Amino acid sequence: MKNQPIGVFDSGVGGLTVLRTLIERLPYESYIYLGDTARLPYGTKTGETVTRYALQASAALVDRGIKALVIACNTASAYALPALRQRYPGMPVIGVIEAGAEEACQVSRSGRIAVMSTDSTARSGAYPAAILKVRPRAQIVSIACSLLVALAEEGWTEGSIVGQVLEKYLSPAFARDPPDTVVLGCTHFPVLKREIETVLGPDIALVDSGSTAAAFVEQTLRKAGELANGKTQTDIRFLATDGSDRFARVAQAFLGSSIRALAIETIDLSPFSRVD
Amino acid sequence: MKNQPIGVFDSGVGGLTVLRTLIERLPYESYIYLGDTARLPYGTKTGETVTRYALQASAALVDRGIKALVIACNTASAYALPALRQRYPGMPVIGVIEAGAEEACQVSRSGRIAVMSTDSTARSGAYPAAILKVRPRAQIVSIACSLLVALAEEGWTEGSIVGQVLEKYLSPAFARDPPDTVVLGCTHFPVLKREIETVLGPDIALVDSGSTAAAFVEQTLRKAGELANGKTQTDIRFLATDGSDRFARVAQAFLGSSIRALAIETIDLSPFSRVD
User: Fold this and answer.
1) Which CATH number is associated with domain B97-209?
2) ipTM value of the model?
């Protein structure tokens, strides 16, 4: 088991920001990353559809032999975690929301926390639920920022357009009783981090759910005695449900290093379409 | 046959701009509109995947008894039209690209034509091919404007952000030897028409492929003697592959009138997943 890979699943390339932190933190692990690029984005779709897609994608990863499953997508974490844990009771299934919520509760002094996310994650209420579980008196503002996903994928990560888009999304939440902590509740948002910090100013703490989740993965595997031996080199496989060119092109900004299109295997999820 | 509905297919809600023109032009026809909202957008996906999706969605429409099929999505028109015409040899299958290309060739004086589209449509080369067929000496600039889809869906159709995004996409094409004609090669773009006109100024002709395609549909049905009798009231059915709430919410901007979420039927395309 120990030397089996960790499965990392995302709707597309955003989860590569999580994979990046995982690799930094757990360099001796192997990884299989699956991006459901044929059906992305998840952030504008219903919980029912997102859950169905997450079950199918996870089945494809489990089929390849993994020791843990990381849901590196906030929208999928918001909706599909209970169904996935029920489906795979013997396997650690780690989402990004619980980790981000806990970190935000620790970091915030005032208890006023803003969560930036996709439309679907915002409407799921998953972040408020997870935050209130840890800190029952917290005040949470959910900010749906769907356009940021498109900006990140277009590679427009800095400049005046990004700044204005961020102003438009964020300023209503800061008009009065401003939060002191902002959660990046979508794995696309870390690539916009510098601009978000500029717009928010130095007094607001930023919590990146994705990198916080990597610490959770480490803890979980350590407790279970399932960390890799530490003598093998990291092996990373990339799977995508749609062609690999765009994946490879967009990936660099998210992973921080380049992937050759040839190294990405295109897979078909239809054999798993009956898993739900 | 005459009183069977016309099937209109799009990846999501963008095709409602085409449906709107169809209803204005052919008010006695009935329509079934199918938006593949569970897998939208198509504009960032490969031709192979887009073709597979288009075949499945069209099978669902043909299954419901239609007399003609309108592909109200530029990306699907760019890739799937040959496969669809081969699959349904007895039925008129009308895309939006040929219509838009022909109109652009008629309207342009200089023969310099810019086509705004999604990333996938731009990379397909379908517009240049269709334009050069009509006007072999035309000079075509393809402008991939992926972010406009997200802006249109977010309802940000005017204001300084839209203006700046348009400037960023359009200005390189107008730096020298500027086109005199711009094709709106994505059905999401007509809702941004006013801003596009403002950025381009009064000397540039705008061609809306979608509304041009409606005229093609009329011509085709008239020639075939298949126009509806003209005594029945328009009946419109809406189908979507994902939940109807977002569809209903976003639809108004595109259709120009509201649709109740209840009037939208959610359908499952997986029974058609083997059609390709």
Assistant:
1) 3.40.50.1860
2) 0.92
